[in-house]
Amino acid sequence: MLKAIIREPLKLKVIETEKPEAGKGEALIALKNIGVCGSDLHVYHGVHPCTYYPITTGHEISGVVEKLGEGVTGLKIGQPVTVMPQLFCGKCLPCRSGMYNICNELKVHGFQTEGVAAEWFAFPADMVMPLPDGLSFEEGAMMEPLAVACHAIGRFGDVKGRKVAVLGAGTIGNLVAQAALGMGAGTVLISDVSDFRLRIAEECGIPFRTNSTREPFAEAYAAAFGPDGADVMFECAGAQQTLDDMLACARKGSAVVIVAMYGKRPEVEMSHIQEHELTVIGTLMYRREDFVSAIGLLGGNKVQLARLITHRFPFRDYEQAYKKAAASKDDAMKVMIGV
Ligand SMILES: [Zn+2]
Ligand SMILES: [Zn+2]
Description:
alpha/beta; Rossmann fold; 7-stranded mixed beta sheet; 6-stranded parallel beta sheet; 11 helices; 17 strands
């Protein structure tokens, strides 16, 4: 079978290797689609803070259960599935408290342990999630980023009727905005520096949009939310400017959720956070319940995933897919690999 392997930064090869067996407690999955994620590109470019080489990336996937290993129940042969790509210890305090997404020993497939970029992968069956009926395999491969969005919102709490600002309209920002609307948010504003990404946000039904290279974010924020401002803001861009815009606008006593990863250590006006009594909330990945919320949103037709897919590549062109995703900030959103 074919498998993609990054031997060292900027050296991705598709190699021929042996097809795996479903071991005890595992499901053998025949892959259908693999989404390219920004963090995969960090690995490819050698700038991911926590990975190793050689490594196989791939953590946003869909496929079909082909075989079940010993002791696996609850999954069926031929069932369309996605996976939750986390390995956790089950023993540390976060795990014992149910917060296994922040396990002290957390390993994520494609970063700290082998990813799923192959024609087949034997995956721990209890981290395999059946896909709802009527979903395409491409949409199935986007359950993972949607679960990221659901978890980020869940970290704040109920957004029903609340005013929500999202900074950054890439895949995650777009899905945070869409999921917030799907969960009943009253008003949602999304900002970006790319008209292309904002056009996709518009097509996904996000009511207020602003390009912060043309309009000061504070003006768009005031126009969308009025003098009382937003109840919660999600920073999904990971830039100094968006962080500054967010903190400058956050109304007193509100919450800000840090969804993005920061390459460089940003400067933060701590006294502003202190005197505005802002609640700063971190968020990492997701847990099973976030996949359940994601499935609920999709079942209710509350979120559009297909519109985010801008490019498709066959498995053999894995490296071109990464190059396209990395090079095209202005015409690529989700790049999808077909297996
Ligand atoms: Zn990802
Ligand atoms: Zn743990």
